[in-house]
Specification:
Elements lengths: L2 H11 L7 H27 L2 H20 L4 H29 L5 H29 L2 H10 L1 H12 L6 H6 L3 H12 L1 H33 L5 H51 L1
Helix pairs in contact: 1-6, 2-3, 2-4, 3-4, 3-6, 3-7, 4-5, 5-6, 9-10
Length: 279
């Protein structure tokens, strides 16, 4: 959000015309990284853990802050803006996941909402800092200090991440059950740690079984062996078709018998009229 305060100074420094593509890239280059960040974040959260993913996002934030504060050309500025956007994408996946998995059960919902509150507070703080620096510093350098000021929050994030544990769910998923139990003991106490860890293990096992069933269904279909549900559906469909054919045949027979009875009645009526005329 610091770009909202630095926009005018940046466009003036790089001599960017109003409404040009270059101005659009200055404002939107971070969004390019934001698009790819969540996809990378999903992979990293499972591969190296939520905590390490957040550390990588902090490194990307730091590189972006320094890279956007020092450049003398627009290309370098936009590249480092995109790097910061990549870090935003990583954090947007890893932060809520880590908060929910580490928070004690009674605080889980409230702390999950704190992520959105922190985003709003950060956006407000960026605007206030940009306004203060725009008043105190010349236009040709104030935008550099606006981007450099991000390092205060980034260093705080990186230092805090050095003292927080890994997610107990990720530890359990990787088979590190003793470490997961130790983390759960810190969060919920030793008495409840066992129950919490057992719930995590059941959830992971249930997810694994569901994944195996889906894989078996896909593999069976590829090998020509259709899943049991599909075979049951086929048998049911064939049974309905047979019953429909039998019912259709019965209806046809009933119609034929009714037609013959009607013809017999008409013949009897005709004979009766002939006999009456003869008499």
């Amino acid at each position: 959000m610091i770009i909202s305060g630095a926009q005018l100074s940046v466009t003036a420094y790089f001599d960017i015309s109003e409404g040009s593509l270059s101005q659009g890239m200055v404002l939107g280059s971070a969004a390019i990284g934001c698009m790819f960040g969540p996809f990378l974040g999903m992979f990293l959260c499972d591969a190296i853990g939520r905590r390490r993913t957040l550390l990588i996002s902090a490194l990307l934030f730091g590189a972006s802050a320094i890279g956007t504060a020092l450049p003398n050309d627009l290309v370098t500025f936009n590249v480092f803006r995109a790097v910061g956007g990549l870090g935003i994408g990583l954090a947007s996946v890893a932060s809520p996941m880590y908060i929910v998995e580490v928070a004690p059960p009674k605080w889980r919902g409230a702390l999950g909402l704190m992520f959105q509150l922190a985003v709003c507070i950060g956006a407000l703080a960026a605007v206030v800092v940009a306004y203060y620096l725009a008043l105190r510093l010349p236009d040709d350098i104030n935008w550099r200090w606006m981007f450099a000021s991000e390092m205060v929050a980034i260093l705080g994030l990186a230092l805090a991440l050095m003292f927080v544990p890994h997610s107990p769910r990720w530890l359990a998923e990787k088979g590190r059950h003793d470490e997961a139990f130790a983390v759960m003991s810190r969060i919920s106490g030793a008495e409840r740690a066992g129950d919490e860890l057992s719930g995590i293990m059941r959830s992971l096992e249930a997810g694994g079984r569901n994944g195996d069933r889906r894989n078996e269904g896909v593999t069976g279909t590829r090998n020509g062996d259709r899943p049991e549900t599909a075979r049951n559906g086929d048998r049911g469909a064939r049974g309905r078709k047979k019953r429909g054919r039998r019912n259709g045949a019965e209806e046809t027979g009933q119609k034929k018998r009714g037609h013959r009875r009607n013809e017999g009645r008409r013949d009897e009526g005709t004979k009766g009229r002939i006999n009456g005329d003869n008499e």
